[in-house]
Amino acid sequence: MPIPLVFGTEHEYVINVPDASLPLEEKWFHEKIMAIALLQDFWLEFFPDIADDPYFIREREVTPDAYDDPRGRVLPWRKYDAPSDRVTLTAPDFVGGFMTPLGSRFYIDHGYFEGSSPECDDPFVLLACEMAQEELLVEAFQKLFADHPLKPRLYKNVSDGQGHSQAAHRNFCVSAGFWPLLVSHYARESYIPDNLTRETRLLMTWHVVEQIFTGAGKYGDEMIVGQRGFSEEELKNAQGVFQLSGRADFAYRLVGAETTHWRPIVNQRYEPLADHVKYSRYHCICGDANRAEWPHLFKMGLTALVLGMIDDDQLDLGFYVKDPHHAIRDVSRDPTCKKPVGVVDYQSGRAYELSPLEIMNVFLKKMERYIGSRSLPAWAGRIHEKALSTAWALEHEPRLLGTVLDWKIKELLGDSRPNAFRIHLNYHSLAGPNTLYRKLVESGAVETVIEREDIAKYKKSPPETTRAYFRGKFIGHFYRDVDHFITDWDQVVLRTNDQGPKPKKIILDEPLGLTRKECGHIFEGENSPSLEHFENMFVIHDFNKNREASYDGPRPKER
Fold first, then answer.
1. Does the residue 129 lie in any domain?
2. ∠ CA 29-33-37 to the nearest 5 degrees?
3. C-alpha dist (Å) from residue 541 to 491, 502, 538
4. Strand locations in 475-538, DSSP E?
5. CA–CA separation, 40 vs 42, rounded Å?
6. How far apart are CA 239 and CA 236, in angstroms?
7. Which residue in 420, 485, 495, 512 could disulfide with 414, CB within 3.0 to 4.6 Å?
8. How confident is the model at residue 57 (pLDDT cuts 50, 70, 90)?
9. Between residues 20 and 55, the one the model is more confident about
10. How many other CB atoms sit within 10 Å of the CB of residue 527?
11. Burial, 344: exposed, middle or buried (Cβ in 10 Å; 0-12, 13-18, 19+)?
């Protein structure tokens, strides 16, 4: 397993009510109810003829107190006259989410509408799938709220400029022996890298410098904006700070399993969502919500290569970033990409300095050798080649990247104008009066890679080379028989009543299994498939058993 074979993304989409006259609590309540409303409506877009099925639909009254649960486990909505105190919702009896016939998943997390892409084995396919599901989401949003008096807007962003951050996570299927490399010297509360493994230091070094390629850009200093104890002059100056990354200010720790409060640079969550004897999963939370296409391809493809090189013990930089906690913020505030960063020599412990661009060039040289020595997918060479030209442009002609990198596009658009942060928000707007990025694409002002035909394809079908194909097709054909509350990435579960037998499920623990090549003839044949086609795949599962088993997977490799 030279590089991660399967990967995907998660994004929290922000619904914003722009009416500043509303009390904050009422505004917040409207936004959360709208998120839940959108989830149900989107669910019914995929499965319209089960809207009256009592197994799925309930009618409940929801009050603001219902949001005391941090994950927002309240019941979605249908149509409502949203007073500030209560609303009656007719809805699916869940917000834990649902899997779609496209292989993707949508749910409510901490009050936000969140979408996850299907598993893909090619960053270009992944990007096409993500763009397809966002187009469907925007269509559903506009249909639902077209005549709403509060005129809500929809954003894909990681920073609101007020000290809050939303998720833009990446997931990589890695070998089972990779994850223990990150936690063999676990430092849950650590801000100091002294007790971290060599592999963790390498990964942190990558995350510190990758933002010169993958940062989405923003105006504002989240270390000051939204915090108490600063003067008006300090706050004003903070709002004018330009950064490469919207997420860098929210990397509070070096390592840990948190994803919402004390966010680490390297996340150590153990949740393979596959056969834990063979696989693990690296859950990366320190990235941005990109709109431009090449940064998205860089953050998936280049990171996959870095993970593969670490797992294969083929990444020998000779150094690591000395203080990642401060370096990730310093790099974010350096649009030249040339201000020195402190590094430490592996062998001697000698401290010296390199620029982010110099460190990136070392990574790219190591990648070039790795690609040349391994049989890797074609996408690896294509993304690496573009990365080389991007690094050259950052060194010699940065303005050439004003059509390629999110942060450079924003920098050239915003300049020092007073409305720079507004430009930043409009850039990330998916639905509303000002969808700046979409207008730039339509005018040919940014470089695109993905063909419209591919986006249209994945608006109708899942990717064909991972388990997402089987799961999506199965759910699409048998959605009335599927228990949508329990079905997840690694299992499809049939519905049953409380008095019936234990539910049957199909285990999907092989990410590259049950592809179109393996089972396309069943779903795409002349005759419609029946459940009998899959009878030998079902297992009986006792859901009373504890699914949260402690880690019993592989231990770290000997280096």
1. no
2. 170
3. 11, 6, 9
4. 491-493, 504-507
5. 5
6. 5
7. 420
8. low
9. 20
10. 7
11. middle
Q: What is the pLDDT of residue 453?
A: 97
E strands, 288-420, in order: 319-321, 341-345, 351-354
pLDDT tens-place string over residues 150-179 = 899 999 998 776 667 777 899 999 999 888
The reply to whether 138 falls in a domain is no
- Number of domains comprising the chain: 1
> What are the residue ranges of helices labelled H in 109-214?
123-145, 179-183, 198-214
- Token output for 44: 């019914």
What Rg do the C-alpha atoms of the chain give, in angstroms? 23
* Cα distance between residue 303 and residue 318, in whole Å: 19
Q: Could you give the angle at the alpha carbon of 278 between the alpha carbons of 276 and 279, nearest 5°?
A: 65
Yes or no: say if 390 and 294 are a contact pair by the CB < 8 Å rule. Answer: yes
pLDDT tens string 465-515: 999 999 999 999 999 899 888 899 999 999 876 555 678 899 999 999 999
Answer for the pair 88, 59: CB distance below 8 angstroms, yes or no: yes
Quote the tokens at residue 498: 């409380």
Q: Could you tell me if residue 479 is inside a domain?
A: yes
| pLDDT at res. 223 | 66
Specify the pTM. 0.89
Residues 6+ apart with CB under 8 A from 382: none
Average pLDDT over residues 408-422: 76
Residue with tokens 């941090």: 70
Q: Residue 336 contacts by C-beta under 8 Å, 6 or more apart in sequence?
A: none
- C-alpha span between 96 and 118 (Å, rounded): 17
Is 28 a member of any domain? Answer: no
The one-letter code for the residue type at 218 is: K
Q: Which residue segment(s) compose the domain that 478 sits in?
A: 462-540
At 462, is the pLDDT very low, low, confident or very high (cuts 50, 70, 90)?
A: very high
Q: For residue 325, what are its two tokens?
A: 């906690």
**Residue 354 DSSP SS3:** strand
For residue 74, pLDDT beyond 90: no
